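Support request, please re-run this one:
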Amino acid sequence: MSERLIEANRLIKKVMKLYYIPTTRAVRPRWLLEEMGVPYELVRVDMNMAQQPEYQKLHPHGKVPILVDEEVTIFESAAICAYLADKYIDKGMAPALEQTERGYYYQWLFYATSTLEPPVEHFMFNVLPSLPEKVLPIKVRSAISTQEALQWFDRVAEPLRKSIAVNNYLVANRFTTADIVTGGVLLWAKKLGMLSDSDPLSRYINNLMQRAAFIRADEDFYAKIAPSVQF
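Re-run finished. Output below.
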């Protein structure tokens, strides 16, 4: 075997795999990979595949995304994004450890998933009741009304509105992974009708949607969702 072929085989083995379903949180790490221009294999998951024992070993709940990077196998979209941004720190998608902006980067990265996303998820299950119960039990869904979820979201979105009032991005006015994770949550909110066109966050999202990497990762992520109730 030639040295050239050996090197090619070595590189093929190192290409990471992203397990993916469109319209899910898996779009976020895919968007980041496209931003960084890092080679990856997209493994499209269907319901049958997700129920297989082999898949359950990768993700205990049979969900996406999953990233397999040689000996590293991790799930949770924000964790995957944080891992990738640090692994390829030279790509500039996260502030360096010694930079003061790193603290604000962590703040928005965690705020997006722990504070901003829960009311969006509750709202989504209220207007789309046919979504699988294993994702969110019916008793949990019914605990908060559509209007309560909307009011909850409006409250937790306010700090973001203030942050982007005079900036295009969340951290030092520079596009980072925090914008990808936060933008991923807000895109759901906007598509579900939780954000008006006049909301400052709509300007923020529209700006993110113009990025070439987002367009490449988008596919049917921004497919039309027709809420089943009127607000």
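The chain has two domains: 3-91, 101-211. The longest strand covers residues 16-20.
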